[in-house]
Here is the input.
Amino acid sequence: MKNPIIYEHIERESKRLAQEFHAYHNHVEIEYQRTMRRINDPRPKEIKAPQPWAIDRKFNPFYVLKHLSPISKSVQKKLDSGAYVPQKPYIYTVSAKGKVRNTTVYQIPDEAVSNYLYHRLLSKNRHRFSSFSYAYRDDRNVQYAIQDISIELKKNPRIIVDPSVKTILSQS
Here is the structure.
């Protein structure tokens, strides 16, 4: 019997990543068709699979969807026995604006377990958060922050925003 919670989280994450790849594939096809209309001898269309897919099949959402039941059973069994250990992530560097940073990609089952545990912990500890805390929460977003700032500005007509301090100072 599959655990519906782990199964659903792995399935949701796999479908999201598969949808992203389909969007990429469709974009490449549209650009290729456009190029064929404009140029007599275009380069052949090239669909590139993400690098992690070549390292381990559990990075590939299509493989994970095809083998969803045994993967979720295995993950659940390891979680139940306390033997679950996330697999080694794929780390690659990205250059942007002269800076280099590392980007980490986790296998789909590990990412799904991580998201599941994150949301469980968040729901259990939501009451501990300040009502003015917006980061890393699924129940508060930027709209709440804008609304709270708007209310604060209406209550205090003389507010100074000091960019060096990065806080709002009320002037009486």
